Amino acid sequence: MIDKTITNPQAPGRVARRDGRGTLGAAPIFVLVEPQMGENIGACARAMLNFGLSGLRLVNPRDGWPNERAGAMAAGATIVIDQAQVFDATADAIADCQYVVATTARPREALLPVLTPNEAANALKKRISNGEKCAVLFGGERSGLATKDVVHADAIVSIPVNPAFASLNLGQAALLIAYEWAIADGREAVAVAAPDLMPATKEDFERFFGHLIEELDRAGYFYPEDRRLNRQHKLKAAFQRAGLTEKEVSALRGVIKALVMGAKNK
Amino acid sequence: MIDKTITNPQAPGRVARRDGRGTLGAAPIFVLVEPQMGENIGACARAMLNFGLSGLRLVNPRDGWPNERAGAMAAGATIVIDQAQVFDATADAIADCQYVVATTARPREALLPVLTPNEAANALKKRISNGEKCAVLFGGERSGLATKDVVHADAIVSIPVNPAFASLNLGQAALLIAYEWAIADGREAVAVAAPDLMPATKEDFERFFGHLIEELDRAGYFYPEDRRLNRQHKLKAAFQRAGLTEKEVSALRGVIKALVMGAKNK
User: Fold this and answer.
1) Do the domain assignments include residue A125?
2) Hey, are the CB atoms on B3 and A46 less than 8 Å from each other?
3) Does B6 map to a domain?
4) Are residues B171 and B201 in the same domain?
5) Which residue(s) pair with B87 in the sheet?
């Protein structure tokens, strides 16, 4: 399940490579402004790497840097922690960026466009494809981004949480933005049909269904004859709706045979 | 920022109401199969409530139920914890459901359609709008969903994580699915333009720009005259690109006046 930590000793190298031979292309940098708990920085690093991001910058982390707890929480994502850069001011952390979005729960305070995570990810993707360096600002645990930080941004990202229960921690906010980035970046979902899921051809299906009807006929199932067609159609629709695979059709033919043989041997 | 816990004493009542007067409509039930740590159950409850979900079912929680740690971690989402139902078997937990999806990192093992979180959320929304009761299965921390659990599902949901670093914990997986549900359910993002963001009318903008040109003219800015139009156009494009609001246009007129007055008083 998704809970298993699948560590890959090759991952750090692949993530760190920026020479075009790595698996990850250009991506936004996550900037944590005055984060407090090392655990939360570590959780951010994990969430980032889960979705293929590795550029992390910290502005005035409360407990200094490096931070043991961040490393411990990051677990397999230490590559992100190890390469994190520390800055004294938000302006310095984004000085080399062309486009910056700020995550905040108070979108109405600032005179900036407000984007959904999906819109923000698409905007970031477009800019990055255009060669721009981009960043996402996240505020600290206590009070989030101050207005003086938000004004550095070109747009605000607002996550559509339940207004009656809007608490999202730093790691969760980072996870959602990283997830939307991965989708905007065209990360192929694992959502491909397994080879065994190839549906049977109509010919195979008809052969199976014909076999079933034949045996049912022998068993006298369709008596009285006047309702035969109606019953056949209903039966066929039920099997058809299942979208049977080639293997399943073959297995079902075996089932029919077995049932018939079993009945004969009684 | 999104880290602030915004607790609303009215929330539990609103969430619990199923009489049509509450703020939350029908939604999928989250079923945790053999979860181990109470903290993770609590994190799931929080993630659910963050996105407006409240139906939680547990199959054989390792440490029994109720679990203090789950309650502590759930914080303001205790309503979800308090109403959680416990079952001995996965089949019992979903017996009243018409459509079930299973989250797993091993989509190729089962002969089921594999959906992205977005596709799954849309499928759930469609079924629920149709009056069907739906559930999402999540596996336990150690080994995820067993095949015997997955076969209860109609489809598999696979989160497109970085294959080189695919660890997502229970709470994170629940967060992403709940987030996609909220979007599929039409949760309005807070992404509405603030009233102050209303762009200025073209008339207001032209009046401001005319004012600027007038003052620049007085200052001899457009000498030599042959490049006047070109320079005016460039200047206008820059201001236009900013998408100035009514208030900003008004403020800028004040700026022009102040600059001119200041110059006169020198």
Assistant:
1) yes
2) no
3) no
4) no
5) B59
- Domain assignment of residue A61, given as a range: 11-184
- Do the chains contact at A167 and B143, CB–CB below 8 Å? no
Q: Specify the residue for token string 């411990």.
A: A72
Is the domain of A29 the same as that of A111?
yes
Q: Which residues of B touch A11 (CB under 8 A)?
A: 162, 164-165
Q: Rounded distance, CA A83 to CA A54, Å? A: 8
Region for residue B203 given its phi and psi (left: phi exceeds 0; alpha: psi -120 to 50; beta: otherwise)? alpha
Across the interface, whether the CB atoms of B7 and A245 are under 8 A apart is answered no
Kindly report the CATH number assigned to the domain that includes residue B97.
3.40.1280.10
User: Residue A260 maps to which CATH number?
Assistant: 1.10.8
Asked whether the beta carbons of residue B164 and residue A10 sit closer than 8 angstroms, the reply is yes
Question: With a CB-CB cutoff of 8 Å, which residues 212-241 of chain B face chain A?
Answer: none
Q: Where are the alpha helices (DSSP H) in B27-169?
A: 38-50, 68-74, 78-82, 90-93, 117-129, 147-150
The burial class, CB within 10 Å (0-12 / 13-18 / 19+), for A147 is exposed
Closest Cα in chain A to B196? A111
**Tally of domains within chain A:** 2
Q: Mark whether B149 and B201 lie in a shared domain.
A: no
Same-domain status, B40 and B91: yes
Distance from CA of B103 to the nearest CA of A (A): 7
**B157 strand-pairing partners:** B103, B115
* Mean of pLDDT values over B204-225: 88
Q: Nearest 5°: phi and psi at A56?
A: -120, 135
Nearest Cα of chain B lies from the Cα of A208 at a distance, in angstroms, of 19
Confidence tier at B196 by pLDDT (50, 70, 90): low
Per-residue pLDDT tens for B86-126? 999 999 999 998 899 999 876 655 567 889 999 999 999 99
Same domain, B179 and B250: no
User: How much of chain B, in percent, has pLDDT values that exceed 70?
Assistant: 83
The pLDDT of residue B19 is 33
> In 3-state terms, what secondary structure has residue B188?
coil
In angstroms, the CA B262 to CA B266 distance is 6
pLDDT in tens, chain A (266 residues): 333 333 333 333 233 333 333 335 799 999 999 999 999 999 999 999 999 999 999 999 999 999 999 998 888 898 999 999 999 999 999 999 889 999 987 665 556 788 999 999 999 999 999 888 999 999 998 888 988 888 888 888 989 888 888 878 899 999 999 999 999 998 755 444 455 566 788 888 889 999 999 988 888 888 888 888 888 888 888 888 777 888 888 888 888 888 887 767 65
Q: How far is A231 from chain B (nearest CA, A)?
A: 25
Domain termination residue (choose one: A151, A184, A217) = A184
Of B165, B184, B203, the residue that ends a domain is: B184
Which distant-in-sequence residues (6+ apart) come within 8 Å of B191 by Cβ? A107, A114, A115, A116, A119, A158, A160
* Cβ-nearest to B11 among A8, A165, A175: A165
User: B214 with B170, same domain?
Assistant: no
Q: Is residue A48 part of a domain?
A: yes
Structural domain contains residue A2: no
